[in-house]
Amino acid sequence: MERLFAGECDPKQLSPLTLAFVGDCVFELFVREWLVCQANCPVNALHKHSVAQVCCQAQAKSMEKLMPFLTEREQQIFKRGRNATTSHVPKNASPKDYHAATGFETMFGYLYLNGEIARLRELFSMICE
Fold this sequence. Notes:
Elements: H1 16-38, H2 43-54, H3 56-66, H4 72-82, H5 95-113, H6 117-128
Helix pairs in contact: 1-2, 1-5, 3-5, 4-5
């Protein structure tokens, strides 16, 4: 897999929340593809399983699992996203989980836009274990 849109983009120049915007989608695509490859089941069931994996609580838990395996640069990107000022926290999430999930998405967005698809696959595999 390579980036879907071949336009020029320097992820170092983007805000953490912009990276999280992309990372949210990238992670969801990984989850959806993984679920579809697991079994052919009704779309409603796929959606429920997907939502359970991409909610901020699950992303925060995934981040805890990944943290020992991240490079120093990946940890810095995560922290930039985690510490970014957001305008709200969903009522069904704790602020801690929401900020960790934002950091997680920021890191996924950065790696994707930087063309580090193999690393994304590696990290996603760790989450799925």
